[in-house]
Amino acid sequence: MRANTATTKIQLTPRQLQLLTMVAHFQENRCYSPTLAEMASELHISRSTVYEHIGELRRKGLLSDSPNKARSLKVSSQAQRLLSNLGDEDYQTEPHEAAAIPLAGTVAAGLPIEAVENTESLSLTSCFGSRDDMFALEVRGDSMIGDDIHEGDYVICRRQSTAQDGQLVVAILDEDNATLKRFYKERTRARLQPANDDYDPIYSYNCRIEALVVGLVRKL
Fold first, then answer.
1. Is 121 a catalytic residue?
2. Range(s) for CATH 1.10.10.10 in the chain?
3. Catalytic annotation on 9?
4. Domain 124-217 has what CATH class?
5. Which fold is adopted by the domain 10-93?
6. How far apart are alpha carbons 203 and 194 in whole angstroms?
7. Catalytic pick among 46, 77, 181, 219
8. Window from 99-108, 134-143, 192-201 with minimum mean pLDDT
């Protein structure tokens, strides 16, 4: 009798499935895994995006690796079963976006206004578009609380490599570490400014702009 797997369904985004398949292909044909740079180049995404998805695949038990060892990613036996039978009920692909929430109208934050029911809907796509260069990141830490950005919030980002002074960006430091800060270009270096007096500015001679923050989503 087939075991009930209703409580153990694996949720994968299409991008995570692409990465998992790529690692499995390398493992089978070359006996080693691709690097983050190779995966990013193949899928035309950033290394930080690959890093986030690989982390999720690890947490889901589909990938493992050896600490401090290059090209050591391995697909688990669970992942091998998933890839061998994509129609299995243990597997479910997440949609790019959940159903939109009804947009019922407007509400006053100052003087009361007439309540008028609306029949439109609200989704991230309707607010920010569905371009391939849009993505979201969950905020960890409290260095931007002065800009009312708190841990657990989601910032909506548009991938781009340049920014003007004062813009809120996702920046990559030393080709590895990502941070959310306000960007300022000084004569010979970049200053990444937090919005919390408990944190010092970050000065970098090797800073790469990954994305511009264009929105914020928060659960209350």
1. no
2. 10-93
3. no
4. mainly beta
5. Arc Repressor Mutant, subunit A (1.10.10)
6. 11
7. 181
8. 99-108
